[in-house]
Design a protein that fits this description.
single chain, 171 residues, mainly alpha, two-stranded antiparallel ribbon, 3 helices, 2 strands, rod-shaped
């Protein structure tokens, strides 16, 4: 064996070492499957194929068909499942995109509403400050008004005396 053959074999062996191998039973026959996937996954795949084949074998007249026909029908059923799953995945992807758009729209609406709320709160604070300022101003005027009211009341009390004086002068 030459060095090149040893190198090639070593690379092939390395490649084989990275694969997982397992024996599976498909349609009553044992097959050795290898792949990068876990053994449990490979067993799942074999189980799925067995279920498909078993389902087809329960169909009336299927057993009387040729092996080629049985194989083609199995392939067609597997392909049918595959394409249905692709359509389902495409629908889910489309649904996901629509939900992402809706989420974006709702987030945008939330931010907009928060900005409006902040503006309203700021306006409210400004109005409250203005009301407090006006209240202070009014509170400062109270003593003036009370004094003016007291003067006014004193003037009214003095008026009837003056009115009485005028009545007596007229009479």
């Amino acid at each position: 064996m030459s060095e090149n053959e040893k190198d090639k074999k070593t690379k092939a062996e390395k490649t084989m070492d990275s694969k997982n191998y397992t024996d599976v039973l498909i349609n009553g026959k044992i097959y050795t499957l290898g792949g990068a996937e876990e053994e449990s996954y490979l067993q799942q795949v074999a189980s799925y194929i067995n279920e498909k084949m078993s389902g087809l074998q329960r169909q009336p007249g299927f057993q009387r068909q040729s092996d080629d026909y049985k194989s083609v029908m199995t392939y067609l059923n597997l392909a049918d499942d595959y394409f249905k799953e692709r359509q389902y995945a495409a629908r889910l992807e489309n649904e996901n995109q629509n939900l992402e758009k809706e989420t974006y729209s709702l987030k945008h609406e939330l931010v907009s509403t928060q900005m409006k709320l902040e503006a309203v709160l700021k306006d409210l604070e400004e109005r409250q400050r203005e009301l407090r300022r006006q209240m202070k101003e009014l509170m400062l005027r109270i003593p003036e008004r009370e004094e003016a009211l007291a003067v006014s009341e004193t003037a009214r009390e003095a008026e009837p005396e003056q009115s009485g004086d005028q009545n007596s002068l007229e009479g």
